[in-house]
Structure formats: structure tokens, C-alpha cells
Design a protein that fits this description.
- This protein is of the alpha+beta class.
- It contains 28 helices and 30 strands.
- Helix content is 43%, strand content 20%.
Length: 924
């Protein structure tokens, strides 16, 4: 059940732009994989490309030719360039342009060049071709490399040069379009080139298209051949110096509307879409104009191209939008969506990535993080409230969780890349606060002025900010931004700062150490971790949340002391607004002052971001064992009068995590009552149905509170779910489809009747092969993960494991085991089932180590009390020689359960005592 609830929380998180983050993580993984890629030799470097492409959309292939003007940097007789193995070379000619006669803007005649005999070969297992020349060419020599080629288009994925199709609503015929997606290194699949970001050169593109289609590229059209011919040749103006991944072309029959950006005659914008869809894009012009105007001011640099073409591509399969220079491609649903996050993000890439480009893939991480920050900053500044202002808290909750693990990321590259980039994004946010917006913005302008049309390293960004801070005197000497940023982005950890006040002397000691939540806290070398931490301090007697200048910087110091704090009657808040990505702990007196103040009408003097931070920090620190749960739970008392979604957001994760920890104890029922008392007034005030024109925050608050009330046994919720469920159970053909919203299924399977659960079981058994497998997977997850009755789980295990019902695959059984770890009822029932049926289960799974390890893991590793430790220990003694390759699982389980038991012994009495007082005061 808790896994399903947490999945719901993550679904809520996605609304602030996590979908964009997820897509960017894919981009980061690709870039990360290229860091160790073999670089081309620097003996030859390109000066310009002249490319001609002729796609054949209906046949799914293309032909082309390229003239590469290149300079010899070191005497050589071999040239290496990128070429994908599927790209076929038809002809190759290399000529040396005689230096005295070389005029790059004029056609070269044969008597001005010296033809060099050459041959080429593909480097095994690499997308590189080497061209061997008959004689060496001296340093400074200029070559023209002419290559004719042909290749296949990508048909199933939107990458390289690809084609896709859509149904014309008028003619009912299929229509093709051709487009490119070159990131990160797909240009080599379209034409031979120096396909590395450091090689930025002008590109002149010529495209051959059918006369009933239109071609669009990075630059405006320069000339076009006779439109009466079937094949029309379009030549585009030469681009500025660009990386190969920034080049783009789209050939289609899509319609467009013309616009000027920001009322400027200098930037022409076209919005492209199917004729019947273009009406859905009426707000794009306003969104783009607002974003570009802001970004031009932010970067101190105008939009760098004369045109901007934005496409809503039907059946576009790429995992994220294409941000080629001057050509943006989106899925139709993305471009027509209410918000502007996606659109702004791609516009930011027009400056950072296209105009200024990372030198190598190792700098893509910094590029990505800064793009994400500027996107969020821009979106909030131009008043786009689609995120209901929950950035960056949802991101912070995620990275706090990830970096506080004993082993962050595990082996998951996607999580590592995205969480690391999110952390760096938050470092940029911290610098914007601590240096001041003016210094940060002018530092970015300094960077862009220096690196536009060029490449950059990550250090170039930090140096520009340092230089600007020096000029503005907003950073104490001799601190550098390189030092500050380096202390954050090079560690897979975050700090926790503890503020211990001395009320007699109006001073405090501020201490930093590694933040760890997951037990045990035996992380190697944790004493060596130190960060540059800005101490921004708010005092109750002089509350000014606009002043974000640090009182002092902790310069990789373990502990410092600050003086001149307010007297003992007043609280202090360190790191307000989550300026830096770190939680803050206080002495108990300061926490109690904060909890008491938040319960007064004055609580709104503390901004909602900070109210959310205080609550989130308190329960996170309690969960980690650094703060009493009584203190942490006191911090929830102000929620009785709180209606801001941001302040409530941490509560739902708190309920999930604490509930997961205590659901095997007698305290759990009291905790569920607490949840019902906490959430019922909120939910009843919000109402069951959305109100016209209500904010996204209010809608999400209703959804969240409803889910957790259902989980806690709120009767109106259960009755509503059962009523909706009857539409399905009473339908004439229940296997045809599920007419019930997913939100109702789990409450019914958890709190409903035997008949309702059995109905769900039969739907899985009889699931038609023609329906979406994902629907069956969700149903199976809820059937296994939600029930509150042990007999339901035992019946499912009997059918799938002992009876070996043929309707359930090994993957289904693996999924069931995994879902049963979400609650004590699930894993306890699984443990008892394993212990009772050891011999037949072992006989069935001994040849299937994945399932054997899975059942041992799920049945033994999740206990959290002494009772559970005793059960697992007894099983280990009974079957000590029979675990086979799962032996390491049970040994690790015993170690972890001992840690969890210690946590429970220390915290459950405190939680229960607090709940008893709370329930008594609320007459529950």
C-alpha cells in the first residue's frame, strides 16, 4: 500500500516539471556515456560544412553530399571524422586548396586545388572513418573533403534523420514528414562530420524536397529552384558557428502561422502544426514572446538568429523536445499544454547549448543544471504559475532522500545523473540568493558575452560569477565561486547544519556534518566531508526574509560560533526559503518557539516556503534519529489552520514514511486516527469535487488528502470507492475494460469485501490479451499491495506459488513479492507463508534464483521490531544450511532489522505518548 501511496506522491511531483527533468535525465545519461568516448585527433579541424540532403520519405532513406573545408593543425597524412556504420560512402575526393589562391567565399576551380589520392576505411566498432592520403600535408594546409553518401532514416525512433506520418483528416490519407534530432551525437548518422561539441563551424545546407512540401532549417531560405519541378532544391543561408547537434531540418506538409517575437521585426516566428491542430496553439506566441524578452534581458544578449520555427509534430516519438538552434520540435500534447515550462526550457537552450556550447560531454552536467535553473527562474519571474509555486521544494525532498542513503543511487545511472544535476541546479539557486540577483545576472551576462559563438568549460561559469562578485563586492575575499560550487557538486552527499543556541550569551554554535537518514550511519570517511555553507539567519525580533546575504560563510569548517543573536524569547531560522540544499537542526527550545509561533495568526509572516522547510526538516531529522519525534510532531500542529499546498506537501511524505515504519506496531491504529483528524477538516473544506477556476495547488491538495484519508480508513472515501467500483462489478462484460478510476481500486481492495477482492482476482485471471498489459500490471499491484486482510494475500500466494496457476507468469510472482514489502501485513503474511510451505516453495524456485532471492528478500528484510527480528532469527536457525545463494540476503536482513529494531525501541514510545496526548486533546 505504501509503495502505491508513494507512487502517487511522485505523480504529484511530476506536475512541477519533473517530466521535463526525467527527459533531461535521459539526455544526461547519453552525454555521461560519451565522456569517455574517443576524441578525434586534433590534427585536422573543420572550418565549414556545405551539406546537401535529399530524403525520400516514402522509401525511408536518403542521399547526400558534403564539402568539408578543414585546416591541418599538425603535419599528417590521415584524417579521422565521424561516420555511422549505416551511412554508406558512394564517392570520396580530397583536395588541397593552394594557400596563395584560397578564397573561402568563392568557388574553387580545378586549377586552384591539388587533388590528393585517398582511400578510407571504417574503424572497427566505432562510428569513425579514417581517410588515408597519398602524401603528408603540412601544418596550415587547407583541404576540401568531398563525400557522397546515402543512408537509412530512423523509422521507429525520432533520432538522426527520421520520418513519421499522420492521417490527414480531410483526405484520410497518410502523410509523411522528415525531421532531424541530432542530440547528442546523431549527426554522424546523417552526414560524415566532426561530430563533437567543440567543433563549431558555419553550415550551409541545401535540401531537396517534393514541391508539395516545405523545408525549414536553422536559417532563413536563401534561394529555391523551379517549383514546377517535382523535386525542388532549397538553399538556406549559412549559419553562424554551430555544433553539429544544433543543425536541424524539417520537411513536411504542415501548416504555419506567422508572428513577430516581442513585437520585434527582427525575429520572425512560425508555429507549425497539422491544419486541424494549429488552433490549439493560440497562446504559443504570447508565451514565447514573454520568455524571449526575459531571456534577452537575463543574458544581456539578443536572440541570436533571425528566425524561430516551432513545430507540433504528430506522432513524434522522441523522449524530449528537440532544441536545435532556431528549430524547436515538440509532441503535440506538450506544445498545447497549459504551462510554458517545456517551451521556456527549450528557449533557454538557444543561448546555453547553442550560442555558448560545452566543450565536451563532461561539461553537459553543468550546462544542463544551469538551463534547468534559468528555466525555473524565468518561469516564476514571468508569472507562469502553472507549477503552483512548488519549485524547488519537491526537488529538494527528492535529493534529500537520495543523498541521505548509505549508498546513494545504487547502480541506477538515471537517478545518479538527474539527482546530481538537480543538486547543481540548487547550487545555482543558492548563489543567486547569496550573491544577489544583480550580481548573479551580470555574472551570467559576463559569461555569455565571453563565450557566445564559442565553447566553454564548467569553470568558465564559476569564474565569471567570481569576477562579477569581486566587482560588486558581494563575495568576501579570497573566496571564489569555484571553491564554493566544487564543495557541493563533487560530493554524492549533502550536509546537515545544527544550530545550538547559548541563550545566556545570545550566541550559537553552528556545526556541519554529513546528512544520513538510512541506518546504520556507518558511512566511510564521513568525517572528511565539509562544505562551503552560507549561513543566512532570520531572527524573530527583526524578521526580514528579503535579506539573503549570508551572516557568515562556513569555509569548510566543522564548527563556527556566531554572536549578537536575539534574546531567549525569540527564535532564529537558518537557511530560510531553502536557500542552500541542506536541512537545519536546532536545540529543542528553538524548535518549540518555532512550533508555538506557527500556531499563531502571525505564522504567515514566515513565507510558505520556509514554513514547509521547517516542517520537512523536522520530520526528516526525526526519521534520521537526530531529533525527538515529539518535537517533529509538534511542528505539524499549525496545519490545523494552514491551507497552502506547499506547507502541506511534506506532511504526505511524513505520513507515508512514518506509517511504513510503525505499521507493524500497536501504535499504527493511533497514527491512522491522527491522520484522519489532521486531514478530515482540510478535505471537507476543499470539497469532494473541483471548483471552477481553482488553482492547481488546491486541486492537488484535495487529491493528496483524499488518497491518504482513504489509506487511513476514512469511511466516506471507502464508501465512495465502493460505489464507483460497483459500476465495474455489475457491468455485463467486466473483462472488456475497467470503467473505474484507478484512485478507487486500492481503497476497495484494502477495506472492501471478500467479493470485491475476488472480483479483482478474476479480472486478472481472465484478462483479455488485447487490452493494455499496463492495466493488468496496475491491477495486480493493487491486488497484492493494498489488502488489509491477511487471508487475501495468502489466497493470492496459494494460487500463484503453490497451485502454479498458469495465468500468472514468473514476472507476476516477482511483482507480487515486491508489492508485499510495502506494509507489515504483506511481508508478515509472506514470511508465515514461506515458513509454513518451505519445502514446496524451495523445490519450485531452487532452479529460479531470481524468484528464490526475491521471496527471501521480501519475506525477511523489511521487519522493524524485536518481534520481527525474533521471527527471522528463528527461521535462520531452522534453515541455516538451506538458503543456498540467498544466504547473503538473510544475513544482511538480520543486520538491518537490528538497526530498525533499535530505531523502533527508541522512537515508538515517544510517538505513542505524543499520539495519546493528541488524541486525548482532540477527544478521539
Amino acid at each position: 500500500m505504501f509503495k502505491l501511496v508513494f507512487a502517487f506522491i511522485l505523480a504529484l511531483w511530476s506536475s512541477f516539471g519533473a517530466e521535463g527533468l526525467e527527459k533531461r535525465s535521459i539526455d544526461l545519461i547519453a552525454a555521461h556515456g560519451l565522456i569517455s568516448d574517443t576524441k578525434l585527433p586534433r590534427a585536422v579541424t573543420p572550418n565549414s560544412y556545405n551539406i546537401k540532403l535529399h530524403p525520400y520519405a516514402e522509401h525511408g532513406n536518403f542521399s547526400g553530399e558534403i564539402r568539408i573545408n578543414a585546416t591541418i593543425q599538425h603535419r599528417t597524412k590521415q584524417i579521422s571524422i565521424h561516420k555511422h556504420v549505416d551511412l554508406k560512402i558512394i564517392a570520396l575526393k580530397v583536395a588541397q586548396l593552394l594557400p596563395a589562391d584560397y578564397e573561402p567565399k568563392k568557388e574553387q576551380s580545378e586549377n586552384k586545388v591539388q587533388i590528393l589520392k585517398s582511400n578510407w576505411e571504417q574503424v572497427p566498432k566505432q562510428s569513425i572513418m579514417t581517410i588515408d592520403l597519398s602524401s603528408e600535408v603540412n601544418t596550415g594546409g587547407v583541404l576540401e573533403i568531398f563525400i557522397q553518401f546515402k543512408g537509412p532514416m530512423f523509422n521507429n525512433t525520432s533520432e538522426g534523420l527520421f520520418r513519421s506520418s499522420y492521417m490527414d483528416p480531410d483526405t484520410k490519407k497518410n502523410k509523411w514528414y522528415v525531421a532531424t534530432f541530432m542530440r547528442p551525437n546523431m549527426a554522424r548518422t546523417v552526414f560524415p562530420c566532426f561530430d563533437e561539441p567543440s567543433y563549431k563551424v558555419p553550415i550551409t545546407l541545401t535540401v531537396v524536397r517534393p514541391n508539395f512540401m516545405k523545408a525549414v532549417s536553422n536559417m532563413p531560405l536563401e534561394s529555391s529552384s523551379d517549383p514546377n519541378n517535382y523535386w525542388v532544391t532549397d538553399k538556406f543561408q549559412t549559419t553562424p558557428s554551430i555544433a553539429t547537434f544544433s543543425m536541424a531540418v524539417v520537411i513536411s506538409e504542415l501548416n504555419y502561422t506567422n508572428h513577430n517575437v516581442s513585437d520585434s521585426e527582427d525575429i520572425k516566428m512560425k508555429i507549425w502544426a497539422r491544419p486541424d491542430f494549429i488552433g490549439a496553439l493560440v497562446n504559443i506566441t504570447t508565451k514565447v514572446s514573454k520568455s524571449i524578452k526575459f531571456l534577452e534581458d537575463f543574458w544581456g544578449s539578443p536572440y541570436p538568429l533571425p528566425e524561430l520555427n516551432i513545430f507540433a509534430l504528430p506522432n513524434y516519438q522522441a523522449t524530449r523536445p528537440s532544441d536545435s538552434w532556431g528549430v524547436l520540435m515538440f509532441k503535440e500534447s506538450e506544445l498545447s499544454s497549459k504551462g510554458s515550462w517545456h517551451l521556456t526550457q527549450e528557449l533557454v537552450y538557444q543561448w546555453l547549448g547553442a550560442l555558448a556550447t560545452p566543450f565536451w560531454w563532461s561539461d553537459a552536467h553543468i550546462n544542463n543544471a544551469l538551463v534547468r535553473y534559468v528555466t525555473a527562474y524565468t518561469t516564476l519571474k514571468i508569472g507562469e504559475n502553472e507549477t503552483f509555486n512548488n519549485w524547488p521544494t519537491t526537488m529538494l525532498y527528492s535529493i534529500y532522500y537520495e543523498f541521505s542513503k548509505r549508498y546513494p543511487h545504487g547502480k541506477n545511472t538515471a537517478i545518479k545523473q538527474d539527482s546530481s544535476s538537480a543538486k547543481t541546479e540548487l547550487v545555482f539557486r543558492m548563489l543567486n540568493y547569496t550573491l544577489g540577483e544583480s550580481t548573479f545576472r551580470h555574472g551570467m551576462q559576463r559569461f555569455m558575452a565571453d563565450r557566445q559563438y564559442k565553447t566553454f568549460f564548467g569553470d568558465d561559469i564559476w569564474m565569471s560569477l567570481t569576477d562579477q562578485a569581486r566587482f560588486d563586492k558581494t563575495l568576501p575575499e579570497p573566496i571564489t565561486i569555484n571553491e564554493i560550487a566544487g564543495s557541493w557538486i563533487t560530493k554524492d552527499r549533502l550536509p546537515v547544519v545544527t544550530v545550538t543556541r547559548n541563550y545566556a550569551s545570545n550566541s550559537a554554535k553552528i556545526h556541519q556534518r554529513v546528512y544520513l537518514r538510512e541506518r546504520p550511519h556507518d558511512v566511510p570517511d564521513q568525517e572528511k566531508f565539509l562544505w562551503w555553507i552560507p549561513v543566512v539567519l532570520i531572527r524573530q525580533d527583526k524578521m526580514n526574509f528579503l535579506n539573503t546575504t549570508p551572516l557568515v560563510w562556513m569555509k569548510r569548517e566543522r564548527e563556527i560560533e556566531v554572536q549578537n543573536l536575539p534574546n531567549a524569547e525569540n527564535f532564529v531560522i537558518v537557511n530560510p526559503e531553502e536557500i542552500g540544499p541542506f536541512p537545519v537542526n536546532y536545540d529543542t527550545d528553538n524548535w518549540n518557539k518555532l512550533a508555538k509561533y506557527l500556531q499563531t495568526e502571525n505564522r504567515t509572516k514566515i513565507p510558505v516556503y520556509t514554513r514547509a522547510k521547517l516542517l520537512h526538516d523536522a520530520w526528516n531529522l526525526a526519521y534520521a534519529g537526530d531529533l525527538s519525534f515529539a518535537t517533529a510532531l509538534n511542528m505539524t500542529l499549525f496545519l490545523k489552520n494552514e491551507r497552502e499546498y506547499l506547507a502541506w506537501d511534506p506532511v504526505f511524505t511524513l505520513i507515508d514514511h512514518i506509517g511504513k515504519h510503525i505499521d507493524s506496531s500497536a501504535v499504527h491504529k493511533k497514527f491512522q486516527t491522527y491522520v484522519r483528524i489532521l486531514l478530515t477538516p482540510l478535505y471537507e473544506e476543499l470539497g469532494n469535487e473541483p471548483q471552477q477556476g481553482e488553482s492547481e495547488g488546491r486541486a492537488h491538495l484535495r487529491s493528496s488528502s483524499k488518497v491518504f484519508l482513504c489509506q487511513a480508513g476514512y469511511l466516506p472515501c471507502i464508501e465512495e470507492a465502493q460505489k464507483a467500483f460497483r459500476k465495474w462489478s455489475e457491468s455485463t462484460d467486466p473483462d472488456e475494460g475497467n470503467p473505474v478510476s484507478n484512485q478507487y481500486i486500492c481503497p476497495v481492495f484494502k477495506w472492501g469485501t471478500k467479493e470485491e477482492w475476488e472480483f479483482g482476482l478474476q479480472r486478472i485471471i481472465n484478462f483479455p490479451p488485447g487490452r493494455k498489459p499496463s492495466e493488468r500490471t496496475y491491477l495486480l499491484k493493487t491486488l497484492a499491495g493494498c489488502p488489509n486482510d491477511s487471508w487475501k494475500i495468502e489466497r493470492l500466494l496459494n494460487i500463484t506459488v503453490l497451485e502454479q496457476n498458469g495465468n500468472f507468469s514468473d514476472n507476476d510472482i516477482y511483482l507480487i513479492f515486491s508489492m508485499l514489502t510495502g506494509g507489515a501485513n504483506g511481508y508478515t503474511t509472506l514470511f508465515n507463508f514461506l515458513r509454513k510451505n518451505w519445502e514446496p516453495i524451495k523445490a519450485r524456485f531452487e532452479e529460479k534464483p531470481m524468484l528464490w532471492n526475491s521471496i527471501i528478500t521480501s519475506a525477511t528484510t523489511v521487519f522493524k521490531t524485536q518481534e520481527g527480528l525474533d521471527l527471522v532469527s528463528e527461521l535462520y536457525v531452522e534453515r541455516q544450511t538451506e538458503f543456498g545463494n540467498a544466504d547473503f540476503v538473510i544475513e544482511k536482513a538480520l543486520k538491518n532489522i537490528r538497526e530498525e529494531t533499535k530505531w523502533s525501541n527508541e522512537n515508538l514510545p515517544i510517538i505513542e505518548k505524543w499520539l495519546d496526548n493528541y488524541l486525548k486533546e482532540n477527544k478521539a
